Amino acid sequence: MAKSVDEFNKKRLRSSNITVVISIALVLFLLGLMGLILINAQKYSDYIKEQLVVNAYFDENYDAKDSVKIAKLEEETFKKVQTLAPVKKATYISREMAAKEAKKTMGIDSDALFEENIFPSSIEIALKPEYVDPAKIDGAIKIIKSVPGIVDVKNDSTLMVDVYNNLSRILKWILGFSVLFLILAVVLINNSIRLKIFSKRFIIKTMQLVGAKRRFILKPFIIEAVILGAIGSAIGLLALGGVWYYFTSQIGSAFVQDNNQYFWLVILVLGVGVFISVLSTIFATWRFLKSNVDDLYYS
């Protein structure tokens, strides 16, 4: 009879541990997925901002005999522009390249309308994402204009402001959902741990009544919480890695190339799993350590 009761308790304990691990894994999988979406959304946002370019123009009026001198001046100016703080990438566009692009845009193959290079040479500049901010774009343009040799800088400021505001709004929503998932992770993992500790409330109280110190009672529960949290986090991360690998292989893009961000996301998910498990275990166990024996029947 005692053997059957012992086996029943072991099965119930095993089932309780599996439930906790699955709960942790599922919740942290969703939390990690939101983290991946947030990281890649930020990177994609930066990529889109870098496609919003400004054009810095050189003086188009100069004597043909000064072409060598002007070419050297434009080269020096281009190198200076590349070193400016707001500049992410700069591309030099010669008069010939500008004429070819104009003919391509207008669908003209003949040179009849382009006997001379009527378009000025210029520099196409992709700004750093932080300088696409409407509050900083004017300052960035002033810096570019101040470079000797640049006579004009043009950009579609309305488009930049609209894109920036829309991307910022999307990122705020994603960040909000990430915070919500973090709160849900805390609540769900805490509830799973509390149910597990609740099933052992009589054991906890019995150990206390026979003289065991609170630290002694807490220690095995904390060790078990660390192990369960780590296992649940590992399973969640493996599932997350598998889903993300399948997704990126299907679309043919690895998205973020900076592995440091993935590394810190793994550390965060693992830390959240273990930390919440341990903290929930301490609070749940402490509750029964402070309660009366009669309260155990009504908790």
TrEMBL record:
Domain spans labelled FtsX extracellular: 54-153
Domain of life where this protein originates: Bacteria
Entry's localization field: Cell inner membrane; Cell membrane
Signal peptide region: none
The UniProt record lists the keyword DNA-binding: no
UniProt domain ABC3 transporter permease C-terminal: residue ranges: 177-292
Pfam family, any one: FtsX
Record's protein name: Cell division protein FtsX
Source species of the chain: Chryseobacterium herbae
